[in-house]
């Protein structure tokens, strides 16, 4: 009889899960903060105009975005532009599977495929007041005319460096801080959310 298996991993923000739930605000000023732990993240470097890049795009089912702030998505994968020859692949598939497929597509050509899933965690900030919370500590212009669903850039929130991705028009944002800075960022966001627990605006 096979031994039962279990996931013994502990996410970087497991100790703050209850505080994040308690910080949630409902209504027209609503905003919520949750952690999405263990999301697959693979750092990819390859020359964009190369046969290897073409093979990688076929493996992902999505083109590699060519401009700062752009993302592309297909199936379980979203590809975030980090630099002229660098991308972050976010996926719902297993890290080993994604890494193996991309290394096979690279096929020994110049480039790199590195599983960085343990390097960062994912925070999701969502609700009518999510943009206002971020604007307290993010230098970007987050107004919809400048930053819309599908946009993702490297920036800072508070003093913490993150990759910031706007997922939808709710608005919902996903923030990808280094795991070692996740506690500080989560506490900063919880504090920034506290203003919206006051009386609701009609």
Automatic annotation (TrEMBL):
GO biological process: sarcosine catabolic process
GO MF term (any one): sarcosine oxidase activity
Protein name: Sarcosine oxidase subunit gamma
Gene: soxG
